[in-house]
Design brief:
Elements (H helix, E strand, L loop, with lengths): L1 H15 L4 H11 L8 E3 L6 E3 L2 H7 L10 H14 L2 H8 L17 H19 L32 H27 L8 H14 L7 H14 L3 H7 L17 H25 L5 H14 L6 H10 L4 E4 L2 E9 L2 E5 L3 H13 L8 H16 L6 H16 L2 H7 L10 H9 L2 E2 L30 H19 L9 H19 L4 H16 L9 H15 L13 H14 L5 H19 L7 H6 L16 H13 L5 H17 L3 H5 L6 E4 L2 E6 L14 E4 L6 H18 L20 H16 L7 H15 L13 H8 L6 H9 L4 H8 L3 H4 L11 H8 L3 H9 L19 E2 L21 H14 L3 H8 L3 H18 L13 H6 L8 H19 L3 H17 E2 L4 E4 L2 H14 L1 E7 L6 H9 L3 E4 L8 E7 L4 H18 L1
Parallel strand pairs: 13-14
Antiparallel strand pairs: 1-2, 3-4, 4-5, 6-10, 7-8, 8-9, 11-12, 12-15, 13-15
C-alpha cells in the first residue's frame, strides 16, 4: 500500500515538474533502488525532502501530540507484552538484545520468519484494540499518469548516506579515533626501538580504559587494537599472558543488514527461475549431460538444500556420484571435510529427484572434470540469473545464506554455512547407529590412532607415589637413558632387524622396571608412552626408528619432569595439564619449542586413550611455541540407548567384580550417559553432590580436592532430563546407599572411593580401560570411548529441543526437564544445554558435541511446487509416468527407485559380551584389613542387615567376613566387651542373654582408631612369620583371660603373663598388676620385676591369680579393647 502511494506521489510530482530529480528518487525508492530513507517529509516547496527525526516529529506534531515521541515504542511494547505474555518477543520487536547473543543470531532455535509470524497476529490485534486504523491515501486517484525519468546508475549525483550506511560510517569514524588514541599512548610508552615492558603495557591498558569514554569511543575497540598489535611483536604473546587483561565481551552482531531483504528477494527469484528452467527442460524432453546434471544438483543444493558453504558445494560436485547412499529408506551424500570428518547432507525434494535422474542416466565409473563442472554451473547460473557470474560457488553460497538468515534457525544456519564446524557421524558409525547392529571390528575403519591398539598402561593409583622430587626426576632420567643404551646393543635374535630388536628389548626393560623400580606416577606414564612408541609408533607413523623413539622419550621426559616436581599427578585435571605443558614449552629454547609442543601433543593423545584424560585446547601452547594449532574436527561418535543398556547389564551382572565395584562402574556409565559428565567429573563426585527425590535427580559439579573443572563454566548443577529404567534406579539406589553409609562416618565421603571409608578414588586408568573396552565390545567399534556417552547426551538434548527423533535413541524426557530446558519459558534452550554441558559457548556445544545438525536441517527446507514436466526432467522419466504415479496407489507412487548403493559396511547382530578377561588386571580389593573389619562390624551393628550383604557392599569376601563375624562374636561373649553389640544380632538365646554390658563408641574415637589400625596393619605386614605367630598367640591369651568388667586380664600362669606383657608392649599400653594375699609373694614379685610391671595388693581380692590392668596411653581403655577385638578376629586369618 505504501509503495503504491509512493509511485502515485512520484507521478504527481513529475507532472508538476518534469525535470525535478525528487520525483525520480521517490520512484526509485518505491522500486527499492535509491539511497533514500523509506519515510521522509516532503518540503512545502516540493523541491526536496527532509529526514524524519525525533526533533522533526516533535516540531510537526506539537499542536496535536505533546507527549514524548518515543512513547510510541513504549506503547508498542506494552501492547505486545499484554497480548502475548512474551517479553522476549517484545525485545525482538524493539530491536533489543540481552547479553551477548542476538535472539535471532547464530544460536537461535527459531527462524526469523517463524518468529515474526508468531508476533504478527498479537501485534495486529493489539493495535486494533488500541484504536489504530489504516489511513487512506491523501492523494486523489489511483492511476499513474506520469512516470518520471530514471537517471542512469553512472550519474554523478551526490548520494545521501543514511540508515545502516550512516551508522557504519559513524562506527568507522570512532574506530579511527580509537586508533589515534592507541598510537599516541604506544609512542609515549615505547619510543622507537624500545623493548616491551609488562608494567608499561599495563599502564596503556589503564589509560585506554580511562580515556576512551572521554573521546566517545569504545573501550573494547581500543583494547582490541592493543592486544592485536602485541601479538605481532616479538615477545608480545609472553607479555600479553602476564598482563592483567580486561575481559572483552564479544557481543554477537545482528544477522541483518541493509541488503538482507534484497538478497532474500534475489534468492527467491533465483529459485523461481531454476524451477522454471526445469520445467522448460522437461517440455523439451532434454537429456542432460553428466556434468550438467551434477551442476543442477549443486545449484539445487544451494537454493533448496541449505548448503551455504562454497567449499562444501565444490565437494558436493566432486563426490555426489560416488558418496551417495541409501540406508533404511533415506538417501544422503557424505561430504568429506578432512581428517576423517564428514558432513552428511540429506537432499531436499528437488535435489533428490535430480540425484535419482543422475543415477538412472549416468553410467558407473564416470569421473568429474572440475573445469567442465564449473563451466556447466556458470552456464546454468547465467541462464537463471540473467548476468555473468565469475565465482559460481561463492555466489551460490551467498544466495543460500541470504535465505537461511530468514528461513532457518540461526544455530542450524551457522552449521550449514560452516561458521560452526559441526560434523556428522562417520559412515561406519552412522550405519551402526541406524541399523542397531554391531560393527565387524575391521569395519570400524579407524585412522592411525590408539583406539584400535592394545595399550600397556600400568596403574597410577594411590598405591603408587603420586609426587616426585627433583632427585627422583634425575634418577628416572638416568635410569631411562641407561635402559635405552642397553637396548641399543641388543643381541641378534632370529631374523629381526636391529631396530625391532632394540625396540622390543626397550619395551621389555621398561615394563619390568616400572614394577621393580618403584617409580612415581608421572615417570610410569612416561615409560608407558615410550613403550607405546616402541610397539605402535605415533598417530602419523607406525614403525619408528629406534633413534626416533629415544629422541622423543628423552626430550619429553627431560622437559616435563622438572616442571612437575611435587605435583600430585593423580589429581591433575585438563586445565592443570595445559598449564604444565605451557610451562615446559616456555622454558625451552625458541628454536625447539614447536617440536616440543608437537611431541607433548602426541604424548597427550596416548594419555587420553590410556588414562582417559580430556582433550586440551592447544591454541595457547602452540602460540607460545611459535606455531598455529591446526583447526580440527570433533571425534564424532555416539553410544546408542540399546548399546548403553547392554553395557550396563554386562557390568551389573558381572558377579566377580563384587557389589561395590559393580555399582560404581555402572554409576560411571549412568553419569556419563544420563548427565553428560566427563569421566573425571563423574569420578570425583561426592555423596553430597548427588541429590535425589524420587525420579528427580540433581548433580552438582564443582572444584574439589581431587581436581578442578575444565573451565569456570564447568561449575554447574545438572538436572536429570530423562526417565530412568528399573535397572538404573537399582544402580543409583545401591550406589547412594553405600555413599550414605560412608557419609554417616565421613562427611566428605566419595561415591567412587577405592574402599568404603577411604578417601582414595578408584584407579582412573583401570576403571577407564575396563569401561572403554566394554563399550568397544558392545558396539564392535574400536573408536568408541567413554567420552562419547557425553556426545550422545548433548546430541539428544539438542534434538529434543527441536522435537526431532534421531536414530539410535528412544529416551523419554522428564516433565520437569521439558519445561525447564526446552520449553518456551526457557527462551534460549541452546544456552541451557551449553550450561548443562559445562561449556562457556554454544559454539563449542554445536561444533564439538552435536552430531544431529544434518538431520535438523531437513526440518526447515523450502519445498517448491514443481510441474510434472520439471519432475519428469529431474528424474529422467516420461511426463506420463509422473501423472500415472499421481493416479495410482501410494505404495507405487514413487515408482522404481534408481540403483543408489547402500554403504559397504559389514555389520552383525549384537553379540554376547563378557568382561571376565578384563578383570585379571584389577587389584584384589576383597581381602579384609583391620580397618575394613572395624567398618564391617560397625555396619553390621547399625544396619541389622545380613553380613553377606554388607560384605558385598564393602567389596569384601563373604566367606572371610562371615568367619570374622563368628570370631568377633565369640570374642565379645568371652571377654565381655560389647562395643559392637554382635550378640544382640544373634539367633542364639544364650548369646542374647550374655550381652549385658553396653560399651559406647564415639566418632572421634573411631577416627583415631582407624589411623591406629592402619599403623598396626602396616607393622604386622613387615613382621616375620614367627613374630606374627607370637602376636596371634598373645591375642588368644588375651581372649582367654580378659575381664571387660574390670578392664583386666586375669592370668594364672607364667606363660600367660609373658604373652599379655608382649601384647601390651606391641600396643604401647601400660600394665599394673593387682595381687591378692595368695599371690603377694617374693617369687611373684621377682617375676613382675622381670617384666618391669608395678603392682598393688588388695586384701579384698578373692582371685587366686594376678589381675593385669592394661591402660591405654592414647585414649580410653575401651578404644584399646576395641582394637584388640578387631585384631583377635582378623589376624588369625592372615596368619
Amino acid at each position: 500500500m505504501y509503495s503504491a502511494y509512493l509511485r502515485l506521489l512520484a507521478s504527481k510530482l513529475s507532472a508538476k515538474a518534469p525535470a525535478s530529480g525528487l520525483a525520480s528518487q521517490i520512484w526509485m525508492l518505491a522500486e527499492g533502488g535509491t539511497p533514500m530513507p523509506l519515510f521522509f517529509y516532503l518540503r512545502e516547496s516540493e523541491d526536496g525532502w527532509d529526514r524524519v527525526t525525533p526533533s522533526a516529529l516533535a516540531l510537526r506534531w506539537q499542536d496535536r501530540w505533546r507527549i514524548p515521541i518515543n512513547l510510541l515504542r513504549h506503547v508498542t511494547a506494552n501492547t505486545l507484552l499484554h497480548a502475548s505474555q512474551r517479553a522476549d518477543w517484545v525485545s525482538i520487536q524493539l530491536g533489543h538484545t540481552d547479553g551477548i547473543d542476538h535472539p535471532l543470531g547464530s544460536t537461535s532455535t527459531s527462524s526469523v520468519l517463524e518468529t515474526l509470524a508468531k508476533i504478527r497476529p498479537f501485534l495486529n490485534e493489539g493495535l486494533k484494540i488500541a484504536g489504530w486504523t489504516v489511513v487512506p491515501s491523501p492523494l486523489d486517484g489511483a492511476r499513474i499518469r506520469h512516470r518520471p525519468e530514471i537517471p542512469s546508475k553512472t550519474a554523478a549525483a551526490e548520494k545521501s548516506v543514511f540508515g545502516a550506511q550512516r551508522r557504519e560510517a559513524e562506527r568507522n569514524q570512532k574506530k579511527s579515533t580509537a586508533a589515534q588514541l592507541f598510537r599516541a599512548l604506544w609512542q609515549e610508552r615505547f619510543p622507537s626501538g624500545s623493548p616491551l615492558d609488562v608494567d608499561a603495557v599495563q599502564q596503556i591498558v589503564e589509560q585506554i580504559v580511562a580515556e576512551a569514554p572521554k573521546r566517545g569511543v569504545s573501550v573494547n575497540w581500543g583494547l582490541q587494537l592493543l592486544y592485536r598489535y602485541l601479538r605481532t611483536r616479538s615477545g608480545g604473546l609472553a607479555t600479553l599472558r602476564r598482563v592483567s587483561r580486561v575481559r572483552l565481551i564479544d557481543v554477537e552482531p545482528s544477522p541483518f543488514n541493509a541488503d538482507t531483504l534484497e538478497s532474500y528477494q534475489a534468492t527467491q527469484r533465483a529459485r523461481i527461475a531454476f524451477t522454471g528452467y526445469l520445467t522448460e527442460q522437461g517440455k523439451k524432453g532434454a537429456q542432460p549431460d553428466f556434468h550438467v546434471r551434477v551442476a543442477e544438483i549443486v545449484v539445487s543444493a544451494a537454493l533448496f538444500g541449505g548448503l551455504a558453504n562454497a567449499a562444501r558445494l565444490k565437494c558436493l560436485g566432486d563426490v555426489v556420484h560416488g558418496n551417495t547412499y541409501r540406508l533404511h529408506g533415506h538417501e544422503f551424500v557424505d561430504l568429506p571435510l578432512g581428517q576423517g570428518a564428514v558432513f552428511r547432507w540429506f537432499p531436499d525434494q528437488v535435489s533428490q529427484r535430480l540425484i535419482h535422474g543422475l543415477f538412472r542416466a549416468a553410467a558407473p565409473g564416470l569421473v568429474i572434470r572440475k573445469a567442465a563442472l564449473e563451466k556447466a554451473i556458470k552456464s546454468l547460473l547465467n541462464g537463471i540469473g540473467g548476468s555473468a557470474i565469475n565465482c559460481p560457488f561463492e555466489w551460490l553460497a551467498k544466495s543460500s545464506r541470504a535465505a537461511a538468515v530468514l528461513e532457518i534457525p540461526g544455530f542450524v544456519a551457522s552449521c550449514l554455512s560452516g561458521d560452526v564446524p559441526a560434523v556428522s557421524l562417520p559412515l561406519p558409525q552412522w550405519v551402526r547407529v541406524v541399523t542397531g547392529r554391531q560393527l565387524v571390528p575391521d569395519e570400524a575403519l579407524p585412522e592411525i590412532s590408539n583406539a584400535n591398539l592394545e595399550l600397556w598402561s600400568p596403574s597410577t593409583s594411590q598405591a603408587r607415589k603420586q609426587r616426585h622430587t627433583e632427585g627422583e626426576s634425575r634418577a628416572f632420567l638416568y635410569e631411562l637413558r641407561g635402559l635405552i643404551s642397553k637396548a641399543r646393543h641388543a643381541e641378534r635374535a632370529g631374523n629381526l632387524s636391529a631396530r625391532k630388536r632394540s625396540k622390543r628389548m626397550l619395551s621389555d626393560l621398561l615394563q619390568k622396571a616400572s614394577i621393580d623400580s618403584g617409580w612415581s606416577a608421572l615417570p610410569v606414564m612416561l615409560a608407558a608412552w615410550t613403550v607405546h612408541l616402541c610397539q605402535h609408533g605415533t598417530r602419523s607413523k607406525r614403525d619408528l626408528a629406534f633413534a626416533t623413539v629415544e629422541k622423543y622419550a628423552v626430550l619429553v621426559s627431560s622437559r616435563l619432569l622438572p616442571v612437575s616436581t611435587h605435583l600430585d599427578v593423580g589429581s591433575l585435571d585438563e586445565v592443570a595439564y595445559e598449564e604444565l605443558y605451557l610451562r615446559a614449552v616456555e622454558r625451552e629454547k625458541p628454536e625447539r619449542r614447536f617440536e616440543l609442543a608437537c611431541r607433548l601433543s602426541e604424548m597427550h593423545a596416548f594419555l587420553r586413550e590410556a588414562y582417559l584424560l580430556e582433550d586440551l585446547d592447544w591454541s595457547a601452547i602452540m602460540a607460545a611455541a611459535g606455531g598455529v594449532a591446526q583447526p580440527g574436527f570433533a571425534d564424532a561418535n555416539l553410544v546408542t540407548s540399546a548399546e548403553y543398556r547392554r553395557a550396563l547389564a554386562v557390568i551389573t551382572a558381572e558377579a566377580t567384580l563384587g557389589d561395590r565395584r559393580r555399582w560404581q562402574y555402572a554409576g560411571l556409565l549412568i553419569f556419563g550417559f544420563r548427565f553428560g559428565l566427563r569421566f573425571g567429573e563423574a569420578l570425583r563426585l561426592a555423596y553430597t553432590d548427588v541429590q535425589r527425590d524420587g525420579e528427580c535427580v540433581y548433580v552438582w559439579v564443582h572444584n574439589a580436592m581431587y581436581g578442578e573443572v575444565k573451565s569456570p563454566a564447568g561449575v554447574r548443577v545438572l538436572l536429570l532430563t530423562e526417565r530412568l529404567d528399573p535397572l538404573e534406579q537399582q544402580v543409583l539406589d545401591r550406589l547412594l546407599a553405600a555413599g550414605e553409609a560412608d557419609f554417616s562416618e565421613n562427611p566428605g565421603a566419595m561415591l567412587m572411593a577405592d574402599r568404603s571409608g577411604s578417601q582414595d578414588l578408584l584407579d582412573r586408568a583401570e576403571a577407564g580401560r575396563l569401561l572403554n573396552d566394554l563399550l568397544r565390545r558392545v558396539t564392535g567399534d574400536r573408536r568408541t570411548r567413554f567420552h562419547h556417552l557425553r556426545h550422545g547426551w548433548v546430541t539428544r538434548a539438542v534434538a529434543a529441543q527441536a522435537v526431532l527423533p534421531i536414530p539410535g535413541f528412544s529416551e523419554h524426557l522428564s516433565d520437569k526437564a521439558e519445561s525447564e530446558l526446552f520449553g518456551d519459558a526457557a527462551g534460549f534452550p541452546l544456552r541451557s544445554i551449553a550450561v548443562a554441558a559445562g561449556h562457556a559457548s554454544e559454539r563449542t556445544t554445536l561444533g564439538s558435541y552435536t552430531h544431529c545438525v544434518d538431520q535438523l536441517a531437513t526440518l526447515y527446507r523450502t519445498v517448491p511446487q514443481l510441474s510434472d514436466h520439471a519432475k519428469a526432467y529431474a528424474e529422467q522419466v516420461a511426463s506420463a509416468t509422473i501423472r500415472t504415479r499421481r493416479r495410482t496407489t501410494r505404495r507405487s507412487s514413487e515408482g522404481r527407485l534408481p540403483p543408489i548403493p547402500e554403504p559397504a559396511i559389514s555389520t552383525q547382530l549384537p553379540q554376547d559380551v563378557t568382561i571376565a578377561d578384563l578383570l585379571g588386571s584389577l587389584p584384589d580389593m576383597r581381602r579384609p584389613r583391620l580397618i575394613d573389619v572395624d567398618m564391617l562390624l560397625r555396619r553390621f551393628r547399625n544396619s541389622g542387615q545380613p553380613i553377606e550383604f554388607i560384605a558385598e557392599n564393602l567389596g569384601l569376601d563373604k566367606a572371610a567376613s562371615s568367619s570374622i563375624l563368628r570370631k568377633a562374636r565369640a570374642v565379645e561373649m568371652r571377654t565381655g566387651y560389647d562395643g559392637y553389640r554382635l550378640a544382640t544380632q544373634s539367633d542364639d538365646p544364650l548369646a542374647l542373654a550374655s550381652s549385658s554390658q553396653q560399651v559406647d563408641q564415639y566418632r572421634r574415637e573411631t577416627d583415631v582408631l582407624s589411623i591406629r589400625l592402619m599403623e598396626i596393619q602396616k607393622r604386622f605386614s613387615v613382621m616375620t612369620a614367627s613374630e606374627q605367630t607370637v602376636l596371634v598367640d598373645a591375642l588368644a591369651v588375651w581372649v582367654e583371660t580378659a575381664n571387660a568388667a574390670q578392664w583386666t586380664c586375669d592370668v594364672m600362669q607364667g606363660e600367660q603373663l609373658r604373652a599379655i606383657t608382649d601384647l601390651a608392649k606391641f600396643m604401647g599400653a601400660e600394665i599394673v598388676a593387682t595381687l591378692s594375699k595368695k599371690t603377694d609373694t617374693e617369687a611373684v614379685h621377682i617375676l613382675l620385676r622381670r617384666y618391669s610391671i608395678s603392682w598393688v595388693v588388695r586384701n579384698s581380692s578373692n582371685f587366686s591369680g594376678i589381675g593385669l590392668k592394661l591402660s591405654n596411653l592414647n585414649g580410653p581403655n575401651r578404644a584399646l579393647w576395641r582394637a584388640l577385638l578387631v585384631m583377635a578376629a582378623t589376624l588369625e586369618l592372615d596368619n
